[in-house]
Amino acid sequence: MKYLIVLGDGMADRPGSVLGNKTPLEVASIPNMDMLASKGELGRVKTIPHGMKPGSDIANLSVLGFDPVKYYTGRSPLEALAIGVNLRDTDVAIRTNLVTLSDDEPFEKKVMVDYSAGEITTKEAHDIMETIQKELGNDEYTFYSGVSYRHCLVSARNGLKTVFTPPHDIAGELVEKKLPTGVGCNDFITLIKKSGEILKNHPVNKRRERAGENKATHLWFWGAGTKPSLPSFYDKYGLNGGVVSAVDLLKGIGIGTGMITPNVLGATGTIYTNWDGKINMAKSLFENGVDFVFIHLEAPDEAGHQGNASLKIQAIERVDYVVGEMYEYLQEREEPFKMAVLPDHATPLILKTHSSEAIPYIIYNSEKEFKKVSKYTEREALNGRMLASGERFMERFLRKN
């Protein structure tokens, strides 16, 4: 038996007037997901434990069967694993975005224009972070480059008791009341302000300005945490696992749980990712003896944060393309398989950020097909089974019958 999860990050939504009181899943053309829903189990799962924030870190740990209440130590430490940072027990890893703030003065009157600096390329971001490390790095703070706008700051002593606000939660808002607070906050506010001075005339930003693209004007910190301690996926479930993703968070979860985490050339975590590259990598993992593959597709979440309905629909349809290609491949192998399709959380267009409601899932078993009329939507899933946690979902997905 082979096992595949295709996860469309932030794919779920809420009905809204912009789409005629429908959700993007209800509007999108998703014949492959609808087919699996009609032949499999359609239900809902609560991936965000009560009292925890609906981040992709918590939600994806949950979907993979690792109880966030027990194992979660922060987002950035998981990303640090993927970057190759060797965290000490006393280190604090802090997610560092390259963002675009407005030109308003004084600083506190600036607005969060773009949490991703126009989805800056990894090459451009690497050049910027190299400058940042040279100018701001010291015995206390070390900056590491990641993918696109996603990077990491490791602090030798500071940040764990500081309160940070994720930049994607404050799009279009003044930064005045969203700056770091709590213990050590002034150090991080100073770093943000100094980064603006450094990046103002950076060659990368000069090129982006000429091209009409958003500049990376400042650093923005969030997602602080300490070195994680995760159990092996194999030890927990008895399966060799692999994670296919563009983003460091998912690679970090894979590395931390002992799964294979290959790099896919051209994988960006956006609508422009290498979709076929991810499909081919998943196939390669199966061909090389991996039992369980987790394909993570970030694009719907990015569109949700932007409040872009048409882009989210397009991203969901690309997820459906991946579902169809992988279903056809697994069918041709003539070996029993199970497929699951779901988001990790909802990213409603009306909110432009994550929410905590239960999300719709499909579990398809090639040995136990159903015959019913169904579509993969949030409303249809209300009629199905309700699972109380991601761990319950994973146990149900992996059970033999």
Beta-strand portion reads: 15-25%
Q: Count the helices. How many?
A: 15
Q: Can you count the beta strands?
A: 14
Distance between the termini: 11 Å
Let me know the average pLDDT: 96
Query: What overall geometry do the principal axes of the alpha carbons give?
Result: globular
How many discrete structural domains?
2
Q: Strand arrangement, largest sheet?
A: 10-11-1-12-13-2-14
Please summarize the sheet with the most strands. 7 strands, mixed
CATH class of the largest domain: Alpha Beta
Gyration radius, to the nearest Å? 21 Å
Can you say what the CATH homologous superfamily of the largest domain is?
A: Alkaline Phosphatase, subunit A
Q: What string, H for helix and E for strand, traces the elements in order? A: EHHEHHHEEHEEEEHHEHEHHEHHEEHEH
Report on this structure.
The chain has helices spanning 24-27, 31-39, 56-63, 68-71, 75-83, 122-136, 185-199, 203-210, 233-237, 248-256, 275-287, 299-306, 309-332, 378-381, 390-398, and strands spanning 2-8, 41-45, 92-101, 112-114, 141-147, 150-155, 162-163, 181-182, 218-225, 241-244, 292-297, 337-342, 359-365, 386-387. The protein contains 15 helices and 14 strands. Helix 3 runs parallel beside helix 15 (390-398) and helix 11 (275-287) runs parallel beside helix 13 (309-332). The radius of gyration is 21 Å and the shape is globular. With 401 residues, the protein is α/β, with parallel strands linked by helices. It has two domains: 2-72 and 229-398, Alkaline Phosphatase, subunit A (3-Layer(aba) Sandwich); 83-225, no CATH class. Strand 5 and strand 6 form a beta hairpin. The strands form three sheets. A seven-stranded mixed β-sheet has the order 10-11-1-12-13-2-14, with helices on both faces. Strands 3, 4, 5, 6 and 9 form a five-stranded antiparallel β-sheet that branches. A two-stranded antiparallel sheet has the order 7-8.
